[in-house]
Write a structure and sequence with these properties.
CATH topology: Rossmann fold
Radius of gyration: 17 Å
Strand order of the largest sheet: 2-3-1-4-5
Strand content: 15-25%
Helix content: 40-55%
Number of domains: 1
CATH class: Alpha Beta
Shape: globular
CATH architecture: 3-Layer(aba) Sandwich
Length: about 200
Amino acid sequence: MSDRYQTILLFGAPGAGKGTQGVLLGSIPGFFHMSTGDMFRTLDHHSEIGKLFNQYSSKGELVPDEVTIRMWREYVHAQTVLSLYKSREDLLCLDGIPRTVAQTKAMQEHIEVRGIVHLVATDPEEMVARLQKRAIEQKRADDAKIDVIRNRLDVYERETRPVLDQFDPSLIHEVNAIGTPAEVLGSVLRVLAPIQASMRSTVSS
């Protein structure tokens, strides 16, 4: 088996439910969910990489891809050292990274993508409603504005959606994002269960 991390990507526009599905998957043995949100929240802001991150975030600037990839590598390594993520046994479920074409190319030497779950909204207005509801619940009034939400969706289409074009279409599995979390999870597992079984078969052989 490849020394690269055996990985599946959770993909979809804001509001598609990547975070919800990632958390649910992470509760199932054999899957390790890692989101960029987790990575940023656990960052030691007094460390070298933490200070570098703060140089950009404190100014409201986007963190360069090379810094994001370095943070990601250090975070995954830490999870491995703590035995929270067992790279020879677990499928790494990435949520929120790679976010750009440049990140995708930079990560190729570190991950072997076994499949991509592309959460697709058949009703775009449902996505808008989800994002608005979430922003209101989290008391982020500015993020609940319709024009802000639509801009986020436009940025996704312009900057993140092209990441899918970097992969073999046979790896991409579209899953309807509209439904209860349990309904969507059922569809996601129908895609991922065979991939997990294949990985375990390769490890044991």
